[in-house]
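Record 1 of the preview.
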Amino acid sequence: MIDRFEVDGLVASCHGAMSAIPASDWDCCGTAGHPLLQHRHLRILEECGLAAPEAGFTPHHLILREAGGATGGAVIGAAPAWLKTNSAGELGVDLGLPLAHERAAGPYYPKLQVEVPMVPNPGPRLLVRPGADAPRVRAALLTALREAARRAGASSVQIAYMTGADQRAAVAAGFVPAEGNVFVWRDRGKADFTEFAGAMTQNGRTRVRKERQRAAALGLRFDRLTGPRITPDLAPRMFAFYRATYDRYGTTPALNLAYFEAAFREMADVIHLSVALQGEEWAAALMSVAGAPRLHAQYWGLAAPQEGLLFEMYYREMEYALTRRLEEIDFGGTGHHKTLRGIGIEPTCHALWFRDETFTPLAARACARRRADAAAEREAEAQKLPFPDKAPDMDGSDEAGTGMAGTGATLWKAPSGKVASEKAPSEKAPSDKSPSSMAPSGAVASEKEPSGTVASEKTPSGSAPSGKTRPAAALPDTAQPEVVT
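->
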């Protein structure tokens, strides 16, 4: 059954399955450069049982239409939403808030979550049809999401891994901003990898040269599979690599074989497999999803530890991106060894609205603390970049981008006009470290540096940027574990 209601002179409707929405109605809302947000990908997540009621996800997708006729006129906006009875796949966006809400305001679940389930890559969440009045559509979508939450009895609306433009609209509508971090490689205006590495400091150039020499000594050959070479029969092999590393660290993968099979069958045009071959056998594989103008480096796996192989896979992704004039690669939310290889760290954006207004100031204080922790982590990591200027050139605009180019640093203000304190309440949520795209909870990725020291990164069950121990996340990690040998 479709729930329809009027919002600011427009018609909003909530739908109980992605398959119930015509693909043309969904994909007309600016998903062309964002394959993870496309109708086919969201439908796959539902049909494979990953974002289905039995997993705690009840689809509640929002479509916004112009007024006209019994069901409204042309589609001008959309938002992927689920009524959730858990926080699975979010990688800590709301850590600490469920218990605090239960104590202060009552039941926390269900909540209305706007996200791409189990795939926490930054991108648009308030989808706007090209040519439509974007500020008006975003504002109407936010109003409609709040009304949908009220009508469904949800405690809140939580929008995860959104763009800065989406977050600024949400904050203007009374949502509380939250923030994490993600590791992003940018081309820095370079023509090829030689020029990119040549812009590094001497230590950076030396590190790249030695790591590539170690990888070359392994005697592997490398191949990149795209387009018609991506076939469903490869899915079990990629899934086995994906699952094996989770098994190695005693964690549970969030994705299943059915997801890989469906993605390889229906999304071969955007899936890339970079593989290292020992003879005819895969020694390592890195699966990326290609948008425009970016790659999402999603899942990594290997047959056996091989020194230097992970970094060689990184460098090959960079080479490919530079060759194809792709401006950025999303390398996920953990892995502090990445900055030493020229991969920067940038904010991820979230926004939360609570139906019980008395809980909002408490949530705002907790989120302010997380933003401060995330900013401190970015500052520390930026100092490790192997470039004289540290930060890449960015225009600061993310109107249609990943959300990684800046948040606008907008703070939530209480009704009195006071800015939320940076001091979190006694029920404060732990610091939010943003999603891991390539590491499971509890795993440690390590690689010997040229000096003989070891670079290691604890995943979300490890320590927060402040150095305080955080509780282990009881959430399945969506992405391929990252192992540096």
